[in-house]
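About this split. The held-out portion is used to measure sequence recovery: a designer receives only the structure tokens and must propose an amino acid at every position. Recovery is the fraction of positions where the proposal matches the reference. Here is one held-out target exactly as it appears in the evaluation file.
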């Protein structure tokens, strides 16, 4: 009697490469644990020392082309837009074009991840040029204190759990911010 060979069916994986070493991976891991754990894809947030948009895209491409990766795996790169003085537009375009050419998805925090955190609490119309600008000139510290975070620490594993109730509002607010930026861009301003 001939027995059929047991064929292991592997679930597709999602890899998320983050610029931040602590804040973004901790937030995303908690979000995934709460909302996406039962999804069909296994999700990995590999630690990385890469911290520029192009380096992150290169790392994602390397992983995608490795023997570990199979067709159907999904790759994301998450990084801060930052000011043009830190990463000129040409560098962002290079990363974006390279990602698109290689089937890598890109998620950008504009200007920094903390902007997304602030959207959990309030509508934002003021532009910020950097993390330091946002931390100095926004209500973020006060908003975090209102949920029990006295001193904001980028490596805090409690951030997600303290602000998670605002995720729905943050999404809606982010969509409005994006539409506003797109409208400004199409009118020739940026």
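Reference sequence for scoring:
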């Amino acid at each position: 009697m001939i027995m059929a060979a047991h064929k292991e069916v592997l679930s597709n994986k999602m890899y998320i490469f983050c610029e931040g070493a602590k804040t973004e991976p901790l937030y995303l891991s908690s979000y995934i644990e709460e909302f996406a754990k039962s999804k069909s894809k296994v999700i990995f947030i590999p630690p990385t020392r890469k911290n520029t948009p192009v380096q992150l895209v290169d790392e994602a491409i390397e992983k995608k082309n490795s023997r570990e990766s199979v067709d159907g795996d999904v790759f994301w790169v998450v990084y801060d837009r930052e000011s043009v003085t830190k990463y000129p537009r040409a560098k962002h375009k290079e990363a974006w074009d390279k990602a698109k050419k290689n089937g890598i998805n890109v998620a950008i925090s504009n200007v920094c991840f903390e902007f997304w955190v602030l959207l959990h609490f309030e509508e934002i119309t003021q532009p910020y040029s950097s993390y330091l600008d946002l931390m100095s000139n926004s209500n973020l510290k006060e908003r975090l204190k209102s949920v029990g975070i006295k001193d904001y620490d980028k490596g805090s594993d409690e951030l997600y759990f303290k602000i998670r109730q605002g995720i729905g509002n943050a999404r809606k607010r982010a969509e409005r911010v994006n539409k506003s930026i797109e409208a400004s861009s199409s009118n020739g301003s940026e």
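Annotator remark: The mean pLDDT is 85.
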